[in-house]
C-alpha cells in the first residue's frame, strides 16, 4: 500500500509539469474533474489537440494515463494517427512506459496487443520493464505481460547495469517479489556494472527493515565498489526528494561499514548530505567521523558549495565556519555564490554576500552573476528573482556586461519568452541591437522562437532594428516566416517588413 502511495505521488509530481496548459487535454484541472468520453470528444472539437506534445514531451494520452482516466478515453485518444503506440514522449518514453509505471494492466495489455515494443530504451537508459521496477511497481501481472511480449529480465538493465531486482528490492517490505524475479532467473546476489549489489541499492532508500532481512539472508554488505564507494555513499545520496535519517547511518555503522569513505570521483558522504539533508545532526555525524568537509570532488565542488547550491540557510551557516575559502571555484569557475544565485533562495545569497563572497565573479565561459540570475528566471519564483536582483545590483554586479558567446542579457532572457523578464531589463539600458557570436540580435532570436506577436512588437518599441540582417543576409521577417508556431497560430507578421 505504501508503495502505491509513493507511485501516486510521483505521478502527481510529473502531472504538475503540465498543469494549467493552454491545451485543455494536457491541463491537470481538466482531468481532475473526471471528464466523460463525450466531454473529451467535444474538447477536441473545440480545437484542443489530442496529439500535440508540450515542451516537456507530454500530450493528451499521457495526461489521461496520469489522471487514471477511464480506459475507453485513453483508447479513444490512441485512435488518432499521430498517437501511435510507439510514439515517443517525455524522456524518450512510449505510452507503454507510463502504463507499466502506473500499474495500468488493462492499458499495458492493449498497447502490447497493438504492437507496443518492449525493447525501446528511453533517454535515461531504461526499458519499460526497468522503468516500472525503478518506480516500485509490484504487480507481477505487469511484468508477466511485458515478458510475454519480449522483455528479458536477464539482460535488461539500467544504464548502470542494475537489473529489475536490484532496482525494486529497496522499495519492498518482504521477499514475495524477490521470489518472483528469482523464478525468472535473476540472482539476488547479482551486481551492477560497478560492483554494487542489492544491499547498496537498499541503503540508498533507507529501508532498514529490508537491509536487516538482506543481512539475515547472507547478502554481502561491507564491500567497496569499483568506484571506491560503499553503502554509506549510497545512503548519503538518498532519493528524489528524500534524504535518510541518522538511524540509517547508525545501522550501517553497527555492521562495521566505514563512514569516512571517498570515491575515486572525489565524492564523500558530506558532498551528498550537504546537498540533500536539513538535519544538522547528520552533517555533524560525518564531520565527527573525520570526513573531509573541504574535499573537492571531480567537478571541484566542496560540501559547502553543494549546500549553497540547494540547501537551507541553516545548513549553509553550519558549514561556513568549517569552510576554508568562501570564494573557492569549481572547475567551471563557479563559486558557492554563483550556484546560490542560480538555484537557491535570496536569504542564502544575502548571507554569502555578507560573508565576503565575491560578487564580481565570472565563470570560465565568461558569464557573471547576472547571467545566472536571468538564465534561471521562472515566473513561479518571480519574488525570489526580484530579491536576488536587488542584492546583486547593490553589490555592483554589471547587468550590462557581455556574457559568453557575446550575448547580452537580452539574448539570454529571450529564451524564456517572458515579457516581464524583458521589461525587467528595460531600465538597465543594454544595447538591444547587439549581435552575438552567431550574428543574431535579440529580435532575430525572438523571430525564430516567438509564439505570438507581443514580444516582437515590444522589442521593436524598445528600439530593436527590424531591418538588421543576420550573417546569412536573413531579415527578421525572413526568420519569422520560418517560425512554425507563428504559422500554426496564423500570426500576422507583416509589421516586421
Automatic annotation (TrEMBL):
Pfam families linked: Ank (PF00023), Ank_2 (PF12796), Ank_4 (PF13637)
Tree of life domain: Bacteria
Lineage: Bacteria, Pseudomonadati, Bacteroidota, Flavobacteriia, Flavobacteriales
Signal peptide residue numbers: 1-19
Keyword tRNA processing listed: no
InterPro entries, alphabetized: Ankyrin_rpt (IPR002110), Ankyrin_rpt-contain_sf (IPR036770)
Cited SUPFAM superfamilies: Ankyrin repeat (SSF48403)
Organism field: Algibacter lectus
Protein's UniProt name: Ankyrin repeat protein
ANK repeat segments: 91-123, 124-158, 265-298, 299-331, 332-364, 438-471
Record keywords, A-Z: ANK repeat, Signal
Amino acid at each position: 500500500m505504501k508503495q502505491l502511495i509513493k507511485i501516486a505521488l510521483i505521478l502527481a509530481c510529473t502531472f504538475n509539469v503540465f498543469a494549467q496548459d493552454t491545451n485543455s487535454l494536457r491541463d491537470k484541472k481538466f482531468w481532475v474533474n473526471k471528464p466523460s468520453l463525450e466531454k473529451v470528444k467535444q474538447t477536441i472539437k473545440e480545437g484542443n489537440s489530442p496529439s500535440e506534445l508540450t515542451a516537456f514531451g507530454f500530450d493528451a494520452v499521457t495526461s489521461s494515463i496520469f489522471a487514471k482516466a477511464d480506459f475507453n478515453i485513453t483508447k479513444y485518444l490512441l485512435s488518432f494517427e499521430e498517437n501511435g503506440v510507439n510514439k515517443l514522449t517525455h524522456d524518450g518514453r512510449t505510452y507503454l512506459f507510463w502504463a507499466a509505471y502506473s500499474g495500468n494492466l488493462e492499458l499495458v495489455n492493449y498497447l502490447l496487443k497493438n504492437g507496443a515494443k518492449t525493447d525501446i530504451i528511453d533517454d535515461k537508459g531504461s526499458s519499460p520493464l526497468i522503468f516500472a521496477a525503478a518506480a516500485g511497481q509490484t504487480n507481477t501481472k505487469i511484468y508477466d505481460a511485458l515478458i510475454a511480449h519480449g522483455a528479458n529480465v536477464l539482460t535488461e538493465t539500467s544504464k548502470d547495469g542494475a537489473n529489475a531486482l536490484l532496482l525494486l528490492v529497496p522499495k519492498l517490505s518482504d521477499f514475495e517479489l524477490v521470489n518472483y524475479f528469482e523464478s525468472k532467473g535473476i540472482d539476488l546476489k547479482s551486481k551492477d556494472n560497478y560492483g554494487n549489489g542489492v544491499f547498496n541499492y537498499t541503503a540508498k532508500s533507507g529501508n532498514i527493515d529490508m537491509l536487516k532481512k538482506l543481512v539475515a539472508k547472507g547478502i554481502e554488505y561491507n564491500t567497496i565498489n569499483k568506484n571506491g564507494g560503499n553503502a554509506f555513499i549510497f545512503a548519503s545520496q538518498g532519493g528524489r526528494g528524500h534524504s535518510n535519517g541518522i538511524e540509517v547511518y547508525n545501522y550501517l555503522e553497527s555492521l562495521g561499514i566505514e563512514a569516512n569513505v571517498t570515491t575515486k570521483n572525489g565524492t564523500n558522504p558530506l558532498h551528498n548530505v550537504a546537498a540533500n539533508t536539513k538535519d544538522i545532526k547528520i552533517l555533524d555525524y560525518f564531520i565527527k567521523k573525520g570526513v573531509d568537509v573541504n574535499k573537492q570532488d571531480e567537478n571541484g565542488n566542496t560540501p559547502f558549495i553543494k549546500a549553497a547550491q540547494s540547501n537551507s540557510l541553516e545548513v549553509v551557516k553550519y558549514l561556513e565556519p568549517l569552510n576554508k575559502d568562501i570564494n573557492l571555484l569549481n572547475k567551471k569557475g563557479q563559486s558557492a555564490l554563483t550556484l546560490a544565485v542560480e538555484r537557491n533562495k535570496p536569504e542564502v545569497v544575502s548571507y554569502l554576500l555578507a560573508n565576503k563572497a565575491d560578487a564580481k565573479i565570472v565563470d570560465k565561459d565568461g558569464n557573471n552573476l547576472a547571467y545566472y540570475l536571468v538564465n534561471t528566471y521562472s515566473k513561479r519564483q518571480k519574488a525570489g528573482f526580484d530579491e536576488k536582483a536587488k542584492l546583486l545590483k547593490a553589490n555592483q554586479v554589471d547587468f550590462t556586461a557581455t556574457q559568453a558567446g557575446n550575448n547580452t542579457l537580452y539574448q539570454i532572457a529571450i529564451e524564456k519568452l517572458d515579457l516581464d523578464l524583458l521589461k525587467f531589463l528595460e531600465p538597465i539600458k543594454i544595447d538591444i541591437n547587439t549581435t552575438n557570436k552567431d550574428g543574431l540580435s535579440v529580435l532575430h532570436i525572438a523571430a525564430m522562437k516567438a509564439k505570438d506577436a507581443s514580444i516582437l512588437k515590444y522589442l521593436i518599441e524598445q528600439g530593436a532594428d527590424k531591418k538588421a540582417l543576420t550573417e546569412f543576409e536573413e531579415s527578421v521577417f525572413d526568420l519569422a516566416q520560418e517560425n512554425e508556431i507563428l504559422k500554426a497560430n496564423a500570426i500576422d507578421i507583416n509589421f516586421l517588413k
